[in-house]
Amino acid sequence: QVQLVESGGGLVQAGGSLRLSCVVSGSIFSINAMGWYRQAPGKQRDLVASITSGGATNYADSVKGRFTISRDNAKTTVYLQMNSLKPEDTAVYYCNAEIKTWILGDFDDYWGQGTQVTVSS
Q1: Would residue 92 be called left, alpha or beta, if left means φ above 0 and alpha means ψ between -120 and 50 degrees?
Q2: Which residues, 6+ apart, have CB-to-CB distance to 116 below 8 Å?
Q3: Which end of the chain is more exposed for a tag (fewer CB within 10 A), N or C?
């Protein structure tokens, strides 16, 4: 069984910073790409940032220059450093990982439960 547990969300004023963390645990053979998505009320879930197992990163245009995604050496934890936060960044942020649970399996998508980020103006 695989679990993704996010932490670090909260309430912050515009211009402030937050750091999200997502720890992957359980029966894992390999992790490919990891990423963060967000979903605001009434809107679809969109990609915020992603990072491959090799460290290549990709960002939504709206967060470029403000957010930084990284992962630890063991590659089982992914972080999202969010600076210069804006009210429009308010959303539930979800961690995602492409995980293979055994050597002959495929990479499947796994999701965390989400963490609320609220930016006040």
Answers
A1: beta
A2: 9, 10, 92, 93
A3: N
